[in-house]
Write a structure and sequence with these properties.
heterodimer; A: 141 residues; mainly alpha; Cytochrome Bc1 Complex, Chain D, domain 2; 2 domains; two-stranded antiparallel sheet; 2 strands; 54% helix; 3% strand; elongated; B: 446 residues; Cytochrome C Oxidase, Chain A; 13 helices; 0% strand; globular; binds protoporphyrin IX containing FE; binds fe (ii) ion
C-alpha cells in the first residue's frame, strides 16, 4: 500500500511538474498569441480610456464581455457589430435609465467623448479572435 | 478548547455569520430584479447588489477560514497564539476594510472586475491585514512543539491564497491579459489553494470526530491535495478557451479540468470511509452532518456540475450564462460555505463549554439550508438551460429570452426562503451558545 511519504512525493512532485508546464504555456500565450489574437497594435489611447470607463462603472456587474461578468444584461462582445455606434452611444448618454425591454440600465449620462471611448473599446473587443465565441445560433431559421 | 487564545476564533465566526446574513439580503435584491421588480434601482442597482453579494461571500468565507486557523493551529502545534492582541486588531481591520469596500460599492467606488471589485488602494490594506494574519499563524506554528501534516497543509493553503491575490492587483491595458490574470486569483483559489484549506480543516474535523488514526487521515490528505493541484493548475485552461488566447488551452484545459472532479470525489470517499472506520462516536452529531455534508455536496456542486460545462464543446454554449450561476452557487456552498459552518458547529461547544449537541434547531438548520440551496441550484439550472437553448441555439434576443425565464426566479426566491430559514436556525443556535469563556478550557477532551 501507498505510504505517507509516497503520498507526499505524489503531492509535491505533481504540483511542481504541472505548475512548470502551466508557467510555460502561459508564457507562450502571453508573448506569442495575445499580441496577434487581440490585435494589440489597435490598442489606442482611446480604447484604453474606454476600458477605464468600463471598469470604473463596473459594467461587468450586469453584462458579460468575452463571456465573463454577470447574467442580468446582454453579452457585449459583438455589440458593436450587432447594434452599431449610435445605438450604443444613445444608451450610454441617456439621462434616464435605458430600458428597451423594461429591465433598467443605470443612467450614466456620459459625455460624447466618454461614450466614443467606450464604443472604441467595444469595437476593439469585437475584433479579438475568441476561437469562435460567441457561437452562431445553429437552429436559427 | 485546550488553549486560551483559541477563543479569538469565536469572533471571526461571529463576523462570518453576520456577513453571510447580509450576503443573503443582496441575493434577494438580485432575485427580485431578475423577476422584473428592480425596485431598489436608484440606491442599489444590480451591479452594486452583485458586487456586494459576491464580495461578502468571499469575506465571510475568509473570516471563517481565519477563525478555523486560529482554533486549529494552537491545538495542532501545542502552542498559544503568539499575539492575541494582534489577532483582534486583525479582526477589526478586516471588518473595517470590508465595510468601507461595501459602502464604496454603493457610490461607484470599485473596479469592475468580477470578484475583484475591491479598489486597488483598499487592496493594499487587505495585503497588510493578511500579512498580519499569516505572521501570527506562521510564528505560532513554527515556535510550537509539533508541525503536523494537517496544520502544514492548512497553512500552505493560506499562504498560497495570499500570494495568488497579487496577480489580481496588476493593471493591464489589454482586456485579455486582465482576464488571464484574474483567473490566477479566482480559479487558482477555488480549484486550487482553497481546497488545501478545506482539506486541512476537513482532516482536523475527521481526526477529532471519528477518532481514526492521524497517520491514515493525513496520508489521504496528501493524495487529495495532490489530485487537486495536478488537475487544478492546468485546469485553469477551462477559462482560457474563449478569451483571446490560443487553441492549445482547449485541449489542456479540457483534459485537466475534466480530472478536477476526482479530487472532490476523493474528498467525499475519504470523509465517508473515515466515518465508517471510526470507532469513536463523538456526540456532536450536528458537526458530523456538516462535515459529511460538505464532502458530498462539494462533489455534486463543484465536481459533477463543474464537469457538466467544462468540456470546450459544451462551454462554447454555456459560457457566461445562468448555467454558470447554477454551478457557482452549489460549488461555493458545498465546498466552502459548508466547511466553515461545519467547523463553527464543531468548535462552539468546545469554546463555550455548553454541550447542546444534537438539538432540533441545529438539524433543521442543516436540512433546510441544504434543501433550499439544492432547490436554488435547480432553479438556476432550468433557467440557464432554457437561456442557452433560446439565446445561443435558436438565436432569440437576450431580452426576450429573459422574459421567458422570469418565472424560474420566482422559484429561486421560494427556495432561497427555505435556505434563509435554515440559516436563521443556524444563527439562533450560534447565539444560544453564548460567548467563549475560560471555564470551557480542557472541559472537553477533544
Ligand atoms: C469548490 C470548487 C469550485 C467553485 C467554488 C467554483 C465556482 C465557480 C464560479 C463562481 C464560477 C464563475 C466564475 C466567473 O465567471 O468569474 C465558475 C466557473 C466555472 N467552473 Fe467552477 N467552481 C468550482 C469547481 C469547479 C470544477 C471542479 C470544475 C470542473 C470540473 C468547474 C468548472 C467551471 C467552469 C467550466 C466554469 C466556467 C463557466 C463559464 O464558462 O461561464 N468548477 N466556477
Ligand atoms: C438567498 C439566497 C441567495 C439568492 C437569492 C442568490 C441569488 C443570486 C443571484 C440572482 C445572482 C446573480 C446572477 C446574475 O448575475 O444574474 C447571484 C450570484 C452569485 N451568488 Fe448568490 N444567491 C443567494 C445565496 C448565495 C449563497 C449562499 C452563495 C454561496 C455560498 C452564493 C453565491 C453566489 C455566487 C458565487 C454568485 C456569482 C455567480 C456567477 O457569477 O456565476 N449566493 N446570486
Ligand atoms: Fe475554474
Amino acid at each position: 500500500m501507498l505510504s505517507k511519504s509516497q503520498a507526499k512525493i505524489f503531492f509535491l512532485g505533481g504540483t511542481l511538474v504541472t505548475f512548470a508546464i502551466f508557467l510555460g504555456l502561459s508564457w507562450n500565450s502571453l508573448s506569442n498569441e495575445v499580441p496577434k489574437k487581440t490585435h494589440e497594435e489597435n490598442l489606442s489611447p482611446q480604447v484604453i480610456s474606454g476600458k477605464h470607463i468600463w471598469e470604473k462603472n463596473n459594467c461587468m456587474g450586469c453584462h458579460t464581455i468575452m463571456g465573463e461578468g454577470a447574467y442580468y444584461a446582454p453579452e457585449l462582445t459583438k455589440v458593436y457589430e450587432r447594434r452599431g455606434e449610435s445605438y450604443i452611444k444613445a444608451a450610454l448618454m441617456s439621462k434616464t435609465p435605458w430600458a428597451p425591454r423594461g429591465r433598467k440600465m443605470v443612467a450614466y449620462a456620459m459625455s460624447e467623448q466618454e461614450a466614443n471611448d467606450v464604443v472604441a473599446f467595444l469595437k476593439w473587443i469585437g475584433e479579438v479572435d475568441l476561437n469562435g465565441f460567441p457561437p452562431k445560433p445553429d437552429l436559427k431559421k | 478548547m485546550k488553549y486560551k487564545s483559541q477563543k479569538v476564533a469565536y469572533w471571526f465566526f461571529a463576523l462570518s455569520i453576520l456577513l453571510l446574513s447580509l450576503q443573503i439580503i443582496y441575493g434577494f435584491i438580485m432575485a427580485f430584479a431578475h423577476m422584473g421588480y428592480d425596485v431598489l434601482h436608484q440606491i442599489t442597482p444590480f451591479n452594486t447588489a452583485r458586487a456586494v453579494h459576491t464580495n461578502l461571500l468571499v469575506v465571510w468565507l475568509l473570516s471563517g477560514f481565519m477563525g478555523a486557523a486560529y482554533y486549529i493551529i494552537p491545538e495542532e502545534s501545542e502552542n498559544e497564539l503568539v499575539s492575541v492582541k494582534l489577532a483582534y486588531l486583525q479582526l477589526v481591520t478586516l471588518a473595517l476594510v470590508g465595510v468601507v469596500a461595501i459602502i464604496g460599492y454603493h457610490f461607484n467606488y470599485w473596479e469592475g472586475r468580477k470578484f475583484l471589485e475591491i479598489p486597488r488602494p483598499l487592496d493594499w490594506l487587505v495585503v497588510i491585514n493578511v500579512l498580519t494574519f499569516l505572521g501570527i499563524i506562521l510564528v505560532t506554528l513554527f515556535k510550537g512543539k509539533k508541525q503536523t501534516t494537517t496544520s502544514l497543509v492548512l497553512t500552505m493553503g493560506l499562504v498560497f491564497a495570499a500570494l495568488l491575490y497579487l496577480p489580481g492587483m496588476v493593471w493591464f491595458d489589454n482586456q485579455t491579459m486582465d482576464s488571464f490574470f484574474r483567473w490566477w486569483v479566482v480559479h487558482l483559489w477555488v480549484e486550487g489553494v482553497w481546497e488545501l484549506i478545506m482539506g486541512g480543516i476537513l482532516a482536523f474535523l475527521l481526526i477529532k470526530i471519528t477518532g481514526v488514526d492521524r497517520e491514515v487521515i493525513e496520508k489521504w490528505l496528501y493524495v487529495i491535495v495532490g489530485l487537486t493541484f495536478i488537475s487544478g493548475i492546468l485546469g485553469t485552461g477551462h477559462h482560457y478557451y474563449y478569451i483571446g488566447v490560443g487553441k492549445i488551452w482547449l485541449i489542456v484545459g479540457g483534459i485537466f479540468s475534466a480530472l478536477e472532479p476526482l479530487a472532490f470525489l476523493a474528498m467525499a470517499l475519504f470523509a465517508i470511509s473515515m466515518y465508517r472506520k471510526g470507532e469513536k462516536k463523538h456526540p456532536n452529531k450536528i458537526a458530523l452532518s456538516w462535515t459529511l455534508g460538505t464532502a458530498i455536496v462539494s462533489f455534486v456542486g463543484a465536481g459533477l456540475l463543474g464537469m457538466a460545462h467544462t468540456l470546450p464543446g459544451v462551454n462554447m454554449y454555456t459560457h457566461g450564462t445562468l448555467v454558470t450561476a447554477m454551478h457557482g452557487h452549489l460549488a461555493f456552498w458545498g465546498a466552502y460555505g459548508m466547511i466553515v459552518l461545519a467547523f463553527i458547529s464543531y468548535s462552539m461547544p468546545n469554546l463555550t463549554g455548553r454541550k447542546y449537541y444534537d438539538s432540533n434547531a441545529g438539524l433543521l438548520a442543516f436540512w433546510l439550508s441544504n434543501i433550499g440551496m439544492v432547490g436554488m441550484t435547480v432553479a438556476f439550472g432550468v433557467a440557464g438551460v432554457a437561456q442557452v437553448y433560446l439565446e445561443r441555439k435558436v438565436g432569440l434576443d437576450f431580452g426576450d429570452v429573459q422574459k421567458e425565464i422570469q418565472v424560474h426566479f420566482a422559484v429561486l426566491a421560494v427556495c432561497a426562503t427555505f435556505f434563509t430559514t435554515g440559516i436563521g436556525f443556524y444563527i439562533y443556535e450560534f447565539i444560544k451558545y453564548g460567548t467563549p469563556n475560560d471555564e470551557a478550557l480542557e472541559k472537553i477532551a477533544s
